[in-house]
C-alpha cells in the first residue's frame, strides 16, 4: 500500500523532529527572546531516535503484526532506513560539535536518556507495559526538548516549570492517543479515554497556571489541548494511520505563536 500524502511525515519519521523543533523555538523565544543554538542537533537527534526505534521494532516482532503503514513501509525499505539512521546520527554529532562548550548540551542528556528508554524496552509485550512505556516516551520527549530550551537559564522558575509540565502532559496524551487508536494498549473504551483525558486536563491546568509568565507557550499548549480533545472524541471514526498524522499535527500549534524576524 502506497502511503497517502499526509502519511509521509510518520512514514519517514520526521514528524517528531518537526514537532520538537517548533516547540524548542517557541520555548527559547519565550525564555530568551531569540531562537536557541541547538535547534539542528536536537532535530537530528530526535529523528535518529525515531528511525532507530522503527528498526528495532521490526527486529522484535514478526511481519504479520505490522499494523500501520509506517511499520510496513520500514520493513520493505529497511536498508534505506538504516542508511538514514546513520546519516541523522552523524549530522546530530557534527552539528553539536560547534556548541560543545555550550551549557545547553548538558541538558541534552535528557534527549539521550529518552532515546535509550524509547528504543530498548521493546520486549515488553503486555498491555500494561506498553501503556507505561508510552507515558515514559511522551514524558522523556518533552524533557529533552524542554531542558535543551531552558537549560541555559539554569533551573527554571516555577511558572516556567509549569509550562514545561503542560508540554509533558501534552506529549503523553499524544502518545497514548496514537497507541490507543492503533490498538496497542487498551481493550476497552473507558480504559482508553480516562488516562488521555487526565493528561489533557493536566496540560490545560498547568498551561493556565503558567500563562502569565509565558503567554505564547501557554497559548500554544491550550490550542493543542483543544485539538487533541477533538481527536479523542472522534477517534473511533479516524483511521489509525491518519490518527498518527492528525495527533502529531495537533502539536504544531507553536507555528501560530512564533515571531519571525
Short note summarizing the structure:
With 261 residues, this protein is mainly α.
> How many H/I helical runs?
11
Indicate the CATH class.
Answer: Mainly Alpha
Oligomer: single chain
Order of helices and strands: HHHHHHHHHHH
Give the biggest sheet.
none
Q: State the end-to-end distance.
A: 42 Å
Rg over C-alpha atoms, rounded to the nearest angstrom = 18 Å
Tell me the helix content.
55-70%
Which key phrases capture this entry?
globular; 261 residues; 11 helices; mainly alpha
Protein topology:
Blueprint lengths: L7 H5 L2 H18 L6 H22 L8 H8 L1 H19 L12 H11 L7 H24 L7 H24 L7 H21 L5 H19 L6 H10 L12
Helix pairs in contact: 2-3, 2-7, 3-5, 3-6, 6-7, 7-8, 8-9, 8-10, 8-11, 9-10
Written overview of the protein:
The chain is mainly alpha-helical and 261 residues long. The chain has one domain (5-256): Farnesyl Diphosphate Synthase (Orthogonal Bundle), CATH 1.10.600. Helices cover 69% and strands 0% of the residues. It is built from eleven helices and no strands. The chain has helices at residues 8-12, 15-32, 39-60, 69-76, 78-96, 109-119, 127-150, 158-181, 189-209, 215-233, 240-249. The mean pLDDT is 82.
